[in-house]
Amino acid sequence: MTQKHCILIGAPVDCGKRRRGCLMGPDAFRTAGLSEAISDLGHTVEDIGNLSPKTVNVSPANNPVVHALAENVGWTQTLMEAAQEAATKGMPIFMGGDHALAAGTVAGMAAHARAQNRPFFVLWLDAHSDMHTPDTTDSGNLHGTPMGYVTGRTGFDAYPALPAKVDTGNICMIGLRSVDEAEHAVLDDGDVTLVDMRMIDEQGISAPLAAFLDRVTAANGLLHVSLDVDFLDPDVAPAVGTTVPGGATVREGHLVMEMLSDSGLVSSLDLVELNPFLDDRGKTANLMVDLTASLLGRRVFDRPNRSFP
């Protein structure tokens, strides 16, 4: 695999939902040896530390249940800028933090793709579509809205203007099994590629992913991957506050990552929703590190032993 310069960016976003703990995610990835796993594969690693949200003033949300709007907007500004800066130097890996961070990372990478005059694609590995807006969310948790924002849905007046809207036809969501009615109304009539767990059970996970990667290759696109812990089954990845049974297996997760590695298409990566407070002796953090290593060139014969005494 071509050597990459991987830029680790700590994004301790903990405002996208009310259950706290994701702010510890970046340091849990560091403790689990993310940097070492990447450098052992021959890549170079630069850890720029943890970022902080910009201080912003916003009008109250129309929806009274919306949680921490100003802080979420501040993080979006910070990460949008960080993504564009880092992407010119290497492969940004955003260590979250909850999935609200993707509003900034995806928007920033879309802007970078536009500057490179290349199409932009997103692979969304998640139990949820996160296609809500601040107006449609029932929970008020804005980690359920980043895809709504980057695709240009209305209701994000408090957020920065999008430098480049993401084309819904260039999005593939794999692992879906918890989509709200308001999100269905958008997705059912749209052109997002939707791969739920039933499709995976019937067809396997490789066929729909391969078809999507072929499209990215044909377009000479840049690909951003957003990996949520709850893409995986909670039995193997318990450290997440939004558990939905019936997720991807460890083997399916590694297969996805190895296929992405083979493709050579990935330009940036989110690692999100790791809540170490809910983990079992680092089990989930270690698995997420192992999956990242598979994305960056580790193969099935080279898997490390994992001991959890």
Can you walk through the features of this model?
- The longest helix has 19 residues.
- Helix 5 links the parallel strand 4 and strand 5.
- The mean pLDDT is 96.
- Helix 3 runs parallel beside helix 4, helix 8 runs parallel beside helix 9 and helix 9 runs parallel beside helix 10.
- The protein starts with a strand and ends in a 14-residue tail after the last helix.
- An 8-stranded parallel sheet has the order 2-1-3-8-7-4-5-6, sandwiched between helices.
- It is α/β, with parallel strands linked by helices and 309 residues long.
- The chain is 34% helix and 16% strand.
- The chain is globular and about 55 Å long.
Compact summary:
The protein is built from ten helices and eight strands. The protein has helices spanning 25-31, 34-39, 69-87, 102-115, 146-150, 181-187, 197-203, 206-219, 250-263, 283-295, and strands at residues 5-11, 44-50, 91-96, 120-125, 171-176, 193-196, 222-228, 266-272.
Main beta-sheet strand count, sense and barrel state? 8 strands, parallel
Q: Which spans have pLDDT < 50 for at least 5 consecutive residues?
A: none
What best-fitting shape do the alpha-carbon axes yield?
Answer: globular
* Helix content bin: 25-40%
N to C succession of SSEs: EHHEHEHEHEHEHHEHEH
- Total number of beta strands: 8
Describe the strand arrangement of the main beta sheet, using strand numbers: 2-1-3-8-7-4-5-6
**Terminal Cα separation, in Å?**
34 Å
**Rg measurement, Å:** 18 Å
Mean pLDDT: 96
Structural class: alpha/beta
Measured by DSSP, the beta-strand proportion falls in 15-25%
Total number of helices: 10
